[in-house]
Amino acid sequence: MHHYLIKRLAFLVLTIVAASALAFVLLHAVPGGSAETIARHTLVGLEDEVSEQMITEVSDQYDLVDPLWQQYLNWVYRAVRYGDLGTSFVYHEPVTRLLTLALPPTLILAATSMLIVIVAGISLGIYSAVRENRAGDLIVRCATVFSISFPSFWIALMLMLVFSLTLNWLPVTGYGTPAHLVLPALALALHPTAVVVRIVRTSMLETLGQPYITFAVAKGLSFGQIVWNHAVKNALIPVTTVLGVYFGHLLAGAVIIENIFAWPGIGHLLVDGVFSHDIPIVTSCIVVIVTMFLVVNLSVDLLYRIIDPRISYE
Fold it and tell me: How is residue 263 annotated by DSSP?
């Protein structure tokens, strides 16, 4: 167990370093120098011409004259030792402060969507398996096909059109009340919910066909006892993996949904940083998203032992 955990943590650190280095290098390779971008954002009008003197002053101020590898190592050193992720080129604020403001909305959105996925996905998957080839099963399967077939941004726009612009039940965009959370959480959760429903249904049907289920029936146990005490627990092992992966996808997929609904999370901050060529913002957002994804997947792997004590990590 300890050796497994050490190896996974080492892999986690190496992945974060690789992701940050790749993002740092690719962002500096994009046409349009960072010094010129910073200088433009310090001017009153972005259409004004940027002088060579201003570019030189900005380069000296932000250490942009150093070699790229040295800039990256300096950034890593400050981040690890002082928790300093740099200063935004556009907002002229510490990146750590901007991330502190943007992280809670993203976690709230992802956690709410994940709750919908777990409750609706597992419940409908069990119901569909129990009612195999009956009317309820066919309706659930058709609904999952519909949800999987359309991308989340199209679903978000349709939800906005129906519930906000047509029925006027919910706000179109914004943040701050539970009503603002409903549409983005649904738009983000529908696709993974459909996938979880299908996986739970398949896993349940496979489990219900096992010999020990037949033996439980022969013992005279009720169908409800068989489903909840025997089938569900064993069927949820493969589902746990999918839930962990999809929670990471929810964190990454929130980039699109946050921008559609003007949700002030990391995704919204990341897109703004990309368009404004704000390298500290984009690099830090990528590192945070990658870190959260890896931590969630490591936590899910460790949960296997709790669900099934027979599983060994060695």
Answer: -
